[in-house]
Amino acid sequence: MKASEIKKGNVIEHAGTVYQVRDIERSSPQGRGGNVKFRFTLYSVPGGVKYDLSAGADDELREVELSRRASTFSYMDGSAFVFLDAEDYTPYQLDADVVGDAAGYITEGLEGCYVQLIEDAPVAVQLPPSVVLEVVDTPPELKGGTATKRPKPAKLNTGLEIMVPEYISNGEKIWVSTTTGEFNGRV
Prior knowledge:
Number of strands: 15
Number of helices: 1
Distance between the termini: 47 Å
Radius of gyration: 22 Å
Strand order of the largest sheet: 4-3-2-1-5
Largest sheet: 5 strands, antiparallel
């Protein structure tokens, strides 16, 4: 596939690594006979490591088929996370290093996940925008201090630590954003 045909969201292979295209800049030639150049902002799959690639309009890039399957987190197999396909219950096993920081948002029976597959091999997981987690340890609310909004630290049932409003107490279930890691409200 020519560089000029690549669109945002496409998945390509470059130098033995698979990347998803997040942004494209096109630079036009200033003089006669100049070549159009494309600058791609790529993120590796899995891992999400940023990479910038410049290519001419006629340069060939290999497109890779990335599919997403709706899945539910089922259980831990040692240090690996096992997700079950929502349609045919195919198990997809992802190592802890592939899941990375997303592990702090995964609870038993978590639905709304998407396992990303390249040639039927699971390579990454995409979590729902927000998840419900339980506060297991947070300091008590200070009486009389309601004039200012002071956040306080809270440890959640997955081991994740975030800042929550002062009125949140132990045992409460809260919404947490999986993209920012911030408090999103009470359940």
